[in-house]
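Late entry, evening session. Most of the bench is empty. Finally got around to the prediction I had been postponing all week. Sequence below, unchanged from the version circulated by S.P.
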Amino acid sequence: MKLEREEVKGIFGVLVHTMDLDHARSDDERVYLMRFLDALGQRGVDLEPLIEELVEHPDVGWHVDRIRSRKGRVYALQQALLLALSDGSYRVVERRGLQLLAERLGIDGVLFEQLEAWAMEGSEWQIRGAALLAR
Protein backbone atom coordinates (compact mmCIF):
# COMPACT_ATOMS: atom_id res chain seq x y z
CA MET A 1 0.00 0.00 0.00
CA LYS A 2 1.37 3.38 -1.00
CA LEU A 3 0.87 6.13 1.59
CA GLU A 4 1.90 9.75 1.57
CA ARG A 5 4.75 10.74 3.88
CA GLU A 6 2.43 12.84 6.07
CA GLU A 7 0.09 9.86 6.46
CA VAL A 8 2.95 7.65 7.58
CA LYS A 9 3.93 10.27 10.16
CA GLY A 10 0.31 10.39 11.32
CA ILE A 11 0.17 6.61 11.62
CA PHE A 12 3.38 6.55 13.63
CA GLY A 13 1.90 9.21 15.93
CA VAL A 14 -1.23 7.08 16.34
CA LEU A 15 0.99 4.13 17.28
CA VAL A 16 2.84 6.15 19.92
CA HIS A 17 -0.51 7.32 21.28
CA THR A 18 -1.69 3.69 21.39
CA MET A 19 1.44 2.63 23.27
CA ASP A 20 0.57 5.13 26.00
CA LEU A 21 -3.09 4.10 26.43
CA ASP A 22 -2.25 1.84 29.37
CA HIS A 23 0.48 4.18 30.67
CA ALA A 24 3.07 1.41 30.27
CA ARG A 25 5.52 1.45 27.37
CA SER A 26 6.62 -2.17 27.12
CA ASP A 27 9.75 -3.45 25.41
CA ASP A 28 7.52 -5.48 23.08
CA GLU A 29 5.73 -2.32 22.00
CA ARG A 30 9.06 -0.60 21.39
CA VAL A 31 10.16 -3.56 19.26
CA TYR A 32 6.91 -3.28 17.30
CA LEU A 33 7.61 0.41 16.63
CA MET A 34 11.17 -0.35 15.55
CA ARG A 35 9.92 -3.01 13.12
CA PHE A 36 7.42 -0.49 11.75
CA LEU A 37 10.25 1.98 11.18
CA ASP A 38 12.47 -0.73 9.67
CA ALA A 39 9.72 -1.58 7.19
CA LEU A 40 9.75 2.08 6.14
CA GLY A 41 13.49 1.99 5.55
CA GLN A 42 14.27 3.83 8.77
CA ARG A 43 16.53 1.14 10.23
CA GLY A 44 18.69 2.22 13.16
CA VAL A 45 16.68 5.34 14.03
CA ASP A 46 16.82 6.31 17.72
CA LEU A 47 13.27 5.61 18.87
CA GLU A 48 13.11 7.59 22.12
CA PRO A 49 13.55 11.08 20.64
CA LEU A 50 10.86 10.28 18.07
CA ILE A 51 8.48 9.18 20.80
CA GLU A 52 9.16 12.26 22.91
CA GLU A 53 8.61 14.54 19.94
CA LEU A 54 5.25 12.94 19.20
CA VAL A 55 3.95 12.96 22.77
CA GLU A 56 4.22 16.73 22.68
CA HIS A 57 0.93 16.42 20.76
CA PRO A 58 -1.15 14.51 23.34
CA ASP A 59 -4.39 14.80 21.35
CA VAL A 60 -4.53 11.85 18.98
CA GLY A 61 -6.62 14.04 16.67
CA TRP A 62 -3.46 15.92 15.66
CA HIS A 63 -2.04 12.65 14.32
CA VAL A 64 -5.34 11.43 12.85
CA ASP A 65 -5.72 14.63 10.84
CA ARG A 66 -2.49 13.80 9.00
CA ILE A 67 -4.00 10.56 7.68
CA ARG A 68 -6.21 11.65 4.80
CA SER A 69 -7.01 8.45 2.90
CA ARG A 70 -9.51 5.82 3.95
CA LYS A 71 -6.91 3.10 3.37
CA GLY A 72 -4.44 4.96 5.57
CA ARG A 73 -7.00 5.29 8.36
CA VAL A 74 -7.94 1.61 8.29
CA TYR A 75 -4.25 0.69 8.18
CA ALA A 76 -3.58 2.96 11.18
CA LEU A 77 -6.25 1.19 13.23
CA GLN A 78 -5.01 -2.21 12.12
CA GLN A 79 -1.47 -1.37 13.19
CA ALA A 80 -2.68 0.16 16.47
CA LEU A 81 -4.54 -3.04 17.31
CA LEU A 82 -1.47 -5.15 16.54
CA LEU A 83 0.68 -2.85 18.69
CA ALA A 84 -1.77 -3.07 21.61
CA LEU A 85 -1.62 -6.86 21.42
CA SER A 86 2.16 -7.06 20.94
CA ASP A 87 2.95 -7.19 24.66
CA GLY A 88 0.55 -10.06 25.32
CA SER A 89 -1.83 -7.86 27.28
CA TYR A 90 -4.96 -6.21 25.92
CA ARG A 91 -6.55 -4.24 28.71
CA VAL A 92 -10.01 -2.70 28.86
CA VAL A 93 -8.46 0.78 28.80
CA GLU A 94 -6.62 -0.09 25.59
CA ARG A 95 -9.75 -1.48 23.95
CA ARG A 96 -11.79 1.59 24.88
CA GLY A 97 -9.01 3.88 23.66
CA LEU A 98 -8.88 2.02 20.35
CA GLN A 99 -12.66 2.22 19.98
CA LEU A 100 -12.40 5.99 20.44
CA LEU A 101 -9.53 6.06 17.96
CA ALA A 102 -11.67 4.18 15.44
CA GLU A 103 -14.39 6.81 15.85
CA ARG A 104 -11.88 9.61 15.26
CA LEU A 105 -10.60 7.78 12.20
CA GLY A 106 -14.16 7.52 10.87
CA ILE A 107 -14.24 3.73 11.20
CA ASP A 108 -17.55 2.19 12.25
CA GLY A 109 -17.99 -0.29 15.08
CA VAL A 110 -18.55 -3.26 12.77
CA LEU A 111 -15.21 -2.79 11.00
CA PHE A 112 -13.52 -2.17 14.37
CA GLU A 113 -14.85 -5.51 15.64
CA GLN A 114 -13.69 -7.29 12.48
CA LEU A 115 -10.20 -5.78 12.65
CA GLU A 116 -9.96 -6.53 16.36
CA ALA A 117 -10.94 -10.18 15.82
CA TRP A 118 -8.40 -10.46 12.98
CA ALA A 119 -5.63 -8.98 15.14
CA MET A 120 -6.48 -11.24 18.08
CA GLU A 121 -6.48 -14.34 15.86
CA GLY A 122 -3.09 -13.34 14.51
CA SER A 123 -1.73 -12.76 17.99
CA GLU A 124 -2.96 -16.16 19.16
CA TRP A 125 -1.46 -17.77 16.06
CA GLN A 126 1.95 -16.24 16.84
CA ILE A 127 1.78 -17.37 20.47
CA ARG A 128 0.96 -20.93 19.38
CA GLY A 129 3.84 -20.85 16.92
CA ALA A 130 6.26 -19.65 19.59
CA ALA A 131 5.09 -22.44 21.89
CA LEU A 132 5.71 -25.04 19.16
CA LEU A 133 9.20 -23.68 18.60
CA ALA A 134 9.91 -23.88 22.33
CA ARG A 135 9.18 -27.65 22.43
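Two things to note before I forget:
Helices lie at 5-19, 27-39, 47-54, 60-64, 70-85, 92-105, 109-134.
The chain is about 70% helix and 0% strand.
Will write this up properly tomorrow.
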